[in-house]
Write a structure and sequence with these properties.
The protein has 223 residues and is an all-alpha fold. Strands 1-2 form a two-stranded antiparallel ribbon. A hairpin with a 2-residue loop joins strand 1 and strand 2. The longest helix is centred in the first third of the chain and has 17 residues.
């Protein structure tokens, strides 16, 4: 006997439907070649305007600098990132953690984006994003280990830029203490490739520099 598969009704916004939507999101993140096709198909549905899914749909309202993000708003960027991450996920030690981090990596941008005379910034979006991602995930799971792994990748995903440029925001010891450098590198690579016109050779070189600097960083143990 073949059982009928339940179909998601995106016009319903009850708790049971929300839980089922999260289940479907998880499946599409882990199984689809292009998860963006599913996420774009539900973006304008009523349930995506409900908490916590509104934290995702709000990404479409967060603008980005056209110089660094010619693909447009944060939602567009995130869709490119999850599609690229879907190609790379088998390199991760934990595909589920990796794909959820890819989906939620810029969830802090709507709250941190500022446009000052045409200059668009989103300072500390990774720190705010880690907090918001935890809030999102705790709506559906009590698995704190999973939540911590996802949010740690989000918290540190901008370190590739800081470490390569050797600016004052780089914190290799702090990053190493909280998360896996190789996972940060993989997420960061997908983040960089989730932009129109990305140079894959240049981005691979940046990741290699980042990983070498992290390997070479051995803080002296205080006596």
């Amino acid at each position: 006997m073949q059982l009928k598969q339940r179909k998601l009704d995106c016009f319903r916004t009850d708790d049971e439907t929300k839980e089922f939507l999260l289940y479907e999101m998880n499946n599409h993140l882990l199984m689809d070649e292009k998860p963006s096709e599913y996420f774009n198909s539900i973006l304008e549905s009523p349930i995506m305007k409900e908490h916590p899914f509104s934290m995702l749909s709000n990404l479409k309202n967060a603008e980005q600098s056209p110089v660094y993000h010619p693909e447009g708003n944060v939602w567009n960027h995130t869709m490119l990132v999850i599609d690229y991450a879907a190609k790379e996920k088998r390199k991760s030690r934990n595909e589920k953690v990796f794909m959820w981090a890819a989906l939620l990596h810029d969830i802090g941008k709507p709250d941190t984006t500022r446009n000052k005379k045409g200059r668009i910034t989103s300072y500390d979006h990774e720190k705010v994003g880690a907090v918001l991602a935890a809030e999102f995930l705790r709506e559906f799971t009590t698995d704190e280990k999973f939540i911590r792994k996802v949010t740690s990748l989000i918290r540190w995903h901008m370190q590739i830029l800081h470490v390569v440029k050797e600016n004052g925001f780089a914190d290799i010891p702090g990053m190493k203490e909280e998360t896996d450098i190789s996972e940060v590198a993989l997420l960061g690579f997908c983040d960089r490739m989730g932009r129109k016109g990305s140079d894959i050779g240049k981005e691979r070189q940046n990741i290699a520099v980042f990983q070498k600097k992290c390997r070479d960083c051995n803080p002296k143990v205080q006596q």
